[in-house]
Write a structure and sequence with these properties.
With about 160 residues, the protein is of the alpha+beta class. The chain has helices at about 5-10, 60-80, 110-125; strands at about 30, 35-40, 45, 45-50, 90-100, 130-135, 145-155. It has a single domain, classed as RutC-like (60s Ribosomal Protein L30, Chain: A). About 40% of the residues are buried.
Length: about 160
């Protein structure tokens, strides 16, 4: 068991199985020492856990949890792509957070913190990253949040 696995266990964080792509793409591309993780939506146990718009159907605290679930799926894809060895992650470089929200909603950063906080919990100082958090009128399958990521890895 490596340091990341021990940390996950001590925090009670269980990494789910990586979601299966729902369309014509691959969940992760590794190029040189970078892993590019495709946008992850709130899948849990093989089904979409949340739908709707933030600011109408979903409040900010719930949306933050949705972002965290998306980030868990990013870590799951990353773990699968690294043959189960998250200790190969050097650092989380960047997260992109898309929030399906009502017009004039302006709390995308608060929602995005659900994903950002998880990266710091899992990877510590190496989980600190740059990011963007933007609002949009709609996301695939009517989900409220989608998150993608870029990670530096050891080959």
């Amino acid at each position: 068991m490596n340091e990341i696995d021990r940390k996950l266990e001590s925090l009670g964080i269980e990494i789910p199985d990586a979601p299966v792509p729902a369309a014509n793409y691959v969940p992760c591309i590794i190029s040189n020492n970078l892993a590019f993780i495709a946008g992850q939506i709130p899948f849990k146990d093989g089904k979409i856990e949340y739908t709707g718009k933030v600011g109408k159907d979903i409040d900010v605290p719930t949306a933050k949890e949705v972002a965290r679930l998306c980030a868990l799926n990013i870590v799951a894809v990353l773990k699968t792509s690294l043959d189960g060895d998250l200790s190969r992650v050097v650092r989380c470089i960047k997260l992109g957070i898309f929030v399906s929200c009502v017009e004039n909603f302006n709390k995308q950063p608060e929602v995005a913190n659900g994903a950002s906080d998880l990266m710091i919990e899992v990877f510590g100082e190496n989980g600190k990253h740059s990011r963007f958090a933007v609002g949009t009128n709609n996301l695939p399958r009517n989900v409220p949040v989608e998150v993608d990521g870029i990670f530096e890895i050891n080959p």
